[in-house]
Write a structure and sequence with these properties.
The protein is an alpha+beta fold. The protein has helices at 10-20, 28-42, 68-73, 80-92, 107-119, 140-143, 169-182, 196-202, 207-224, 228-235, 342-348, and strands spanning 3-5, 45-48, 58-66, 98-101, 123-124, 126-127, 151-154, 160-163, 186-190, 194-195, 204-205, 245-260, 263-272, 280-286, 288-294, 297-301, 305-310, 327-333. The protein folds into two domains: 3-205, CV3147-like domain (CV3147-like fold, 3-Layer(aba) Sandwich), CATH 3.40.1610; 235-353, CV3147-like. The protein starts with a strand and ends in a 17-residue tail after the last helix.
Length: 365
């Protein structure tokens, strides 16, 4: 059933989307500003469920791509998403395409809302990642055999680049990443254009609703002076995601981070406090958090969501904002089953990121 999202909802969505972004997906504040400006000019956006899509309705996912550290230091001009979306629609000869998120996290939950508001069209309550992942082909759309091209990349300088007839989605990622690096390290891309029947088959459903649900729960807990971490865990059990849990509490004692090949890569070390006082946890990240360990024991891995939150506010701390001394909690949200098929794990399981072990269920304390 369709519903509306307006300016007053964006604060909660930014909170929830940042949590679903597992440390990546781009700064949610920047995305919120972009979407809010469009909604102030054009009004609220209608959100369609996947079931409401007509089989022949064109849908174009849209998102930012590149290193979050670059976006953090150099905010976008703000017109890039609409340029990437409209240029690809024009290339396809489509006049009424609906925008859809590529991923559920950070700025990329907001970018389709900006496009929808500017064009006066609905946005689709679904995406292809169910969280944030660093590479373009890491989507259920790819897992289900949908081609990512034609695609369009738009830069802060007004450049648009069409990538058509790319022989597979891995090559699309390689080309888009290289172009993005040469356009300054961050761009916006429209890709995986498809019709409603493909969205119904391949999308992760209800992720905009989930982000809004989590964000509202956190903000309500803050207002009542309740535990926001408990609010995250209770609200995340929705849309096929499993019951979340607090895996660790502590203080950030070391952050090793570098920008490499268009990604923010590194590791954060957290020393335990409270019941975790005698323990230490590490999290590897590539834009997003990938694997959490305690000593040599693996606690959680991709595709399950490992997100670092401020232990007092429940707000997500993205990988580019991790700093020494932060008091944090690590929350794990089990991903939906569509993300854990053998085909999906072959794309974004641990081995897809170069680890020498397979996916395993998260270990609850």
């Amino acid at each position: 059933m369709s519903w509306e999202i307006g300016v007053s909802d964006l604060g909660a969505l930014a909170v929830g989307a940042a949590i679903l972004g597992t440390g990546g997906g781009g700064d949610p504040y920047i995305g919120r500003v972009m979407a809010e400006a469009a909604m102030v000019r054009h009004g609220p956006v209608t959100v369609y469920s996947v079931d409401e899509l007509a089989a022949e309705q064109w849908v174009i996912p849209i998102a930012g791509v590149g290193a979050p550290t670059v976006l953090f230091e150099k905010p976008p001009r703000g017109t890039e998403p609409i340029e990437a979306f409209e240029r690809l629609a024009e290339y396809l000869g489509v006049t009424d395409a609906f925008p859809c998120p590529i991923e559920a996290g950070g700025i990329n939950s907001m970018v389709p809302l900006q496009v929808a508001a500017e064009l006066g069209r609905p946005v689709v309550d679904a995406d292809g990642m169910g969280r944030a992942f660093p590479e373009i082909y890491m989507q259920t759309f790819h897992v289900f055999g949908i081609p990512g091209s034609p695609a369009c990349i738009a830069s802060e300088f007004g450049d648009t680049v069409i990538l058509d007839r790319i022989h597979d989605n891995y090559q699309l990622e390689w080309l888009a990443r290289g172009i993005t690096i040469r356009l300054g390290g961050h761009s916006f891309v429209s890709q995986f254009p498809m019709q409603g029947f493909s969205v119904k088959r391949a999308a992760i459903r209800g992720t905009l609703s989930l982000g809004l649900r989590i964000g509202r729960a956190v903000l309500a807990a803050q207002k009542r002076h309740d535990d926001p971490l408990a609010a995250v865990c209770a609200s995340a059990d929705y849309a096929g995601y499993g019951p979340a849990f607090v895996a660790f509490r502590g203080k950030v004692t070391e952050v090793v981070r570098r920008t490499d090949g268009g990604f923010a890569k590194g590791q954060v070390t957290i020393e335990g406090v409270g019941q975790d006082k005698r323990s230490c946890a590490t999290i590897d990240f590539q834009n997003e958090n990938l694997v959490m360990r305690q000593a040599e024991d693996i606690v959680a891995t991709v595709p399950d969501l490992v997100t670092v939150l401020d232990s007092q506010t429940g707000l997500a701390i993205t990988t580019e904002r991790l700093r020494y001394g932060q008091r944090v909690a690590v929350v794990v949200i089990p991903a939906p089953d569509i993300m854990k098929s053998p085909e999906a794990l072959g794309v974004w399981g641990p081995r897809g990121f170069g680890y020498a072990f397979d996916y395993r269920e998260p270990v609850r304390p």
